[in-house]
Design brief:
The protein has 341 residues and is an all-alpha fold. It has 14 helices and no strands. It is globular and about 55 Å long.
């Protein structure tokens, strides 16, 4: 998708300074200002680990696992997500339903969105590493993305249908190419991606509300419940193959959101949002206020609206809450690591 002979970060046809002509220079060549991130936060992997990134990755992975537990144990497993519905936030029939409804409100879609943002931040680190070594970009990263796609495909077929790696691989290739463009171009693409995504989710939600359906699809068919309760592994693989389009529709419908969150991760990384300095703390404080202050009420409203509002809840409000979670976890880490005077 790019000219492989071009050094990472350079726009073909424009002059570029080299380390030989500018000793010690480490400026962001595709940034509108051409400067490094405030506070020396090494926004793209300049040679030191950012402890907050490791904490956020751990929380995001564990949180995603927790949100998948109800899929593993539910009737119909993966197909139950499409057909089974979820207990309402109000009017639940049992304590278990209440617990599940509250848990979904807190977790569903949030940790996956956080993981997506962090994947974009990691891509920015890899880009900067290639730039410092003078390697072409995307260059060998294409092979890494292809490996990720193959791994995700095998995971989908042989293990679990709700795989994220296939969608991540495709989105990563697009984002890798956008990293060679200007910051203005990336902001424009991010804006269009988010706008189109929210429009699509709004239209689908309006269709569900107008149809008067609850989005649950009438419950999980008995034969599917029996398949996952008593069927063999080969039968489940065959079922995933037969229903591949329906089980893989999520990354297709949410590609705009994936691209936006990847680019958001890139921007946060380059702004120093994960650094331990004052600039990083200010950014995270704004993420906490806006993410939770606006995202939580929207998420509650979607949950109270019923299953017809599921799409806007998971793919609209949840990513905003995830931004707040990043700020909240950052505030906790800052307090724990604050030196005692």
């Amino acid at each position: 998708m790019t000219t492989t002979g071009t050094r990472a970060g350079a726009v073909p046809g424009t002059p570029r300074s080299t380390p030989e002509t500018t000793p010690g220079a480490r400026r962001t060549t595709d940034d509108t200002t051409g400067s490094t991130a405030p506070g020396g936060a090494r926004p793209s992997g300049g040679g030191g680990r950012l402890p907050l990134l490791d904490v956020l990755r751990g929380v995001a992975i564990l949180g995603t696992l927790m949100t998948n537990v109800w899929i593993f144990t539910g009737a119909g497993a993966e197909w139950g997500v499409l057909a089974g519905g979820a207990p309402p936030l109000l009017g639940a029939d049992s304590a278990g339903d209440v617990a599940e409804a509250v848990f979904r409100l807190v977790a569903d879609g949030k940790f996956l969105s956080m993981l997506t943002i962090l994947f974009g931040a990691g891509l920015a680190i890899q880009y900067r590493s290639a730039e410092r070594r003078g390697e072409p970009w995307p260059g060998r990263y294409r092979w890494r993305a292809l490996f990720l796609f193959v791994e995700g495909t095998l995971h989908f077929l042989l293990v679990f249908a709700w795989d994220v790696l296939m969608g991540y691989a495709v989105t990563a290739l697009v984002t890798a190419w956008l990293l060679t463009r200007s910051a203005r171009a990336r902001r424009r693409v991010a804006g269009w991606a988010l706008g189109l995504h929210l429009t699509l989710m709004g239209l689908l939600t309006a269709a569900l509300v107008y149809a008067g359906g609850d989005g649950a699809g009438g419950g999980v068919p008995r034969e599917v419940v029996d398949l996952y309760a008593h069927g063999g592994w080969a039968d489940q693989v065959a079922f995933r193959l037969d229903h591949a389009l329906a089980l893989r529709i999520e990354p297709v419908l949410t590609f705009g959101l994936l691209l936006f969150l990847f680019l958001l991760g890139v921007r946060l990384m380059r702004a120093g949002a994960f650094g331990a300095d004052a600039a990083g703390r200010r950014i995270r404080a704004r993420m906490l206020r806006w993410g939770l202050g606006l995202g939580v009420p929207l998420n509650i409203a979607c949950a109270l609206g019923g299953e017809a509002w599921f799409l806007l809840g998971r793919y609209g409000a949840a990513p905003l809450v995830a931004v707040g979670y990043v700020g909240l976890i950052g505030a906790v880490v800052d307090r724990v690591r604050r030196p005692v005077r």
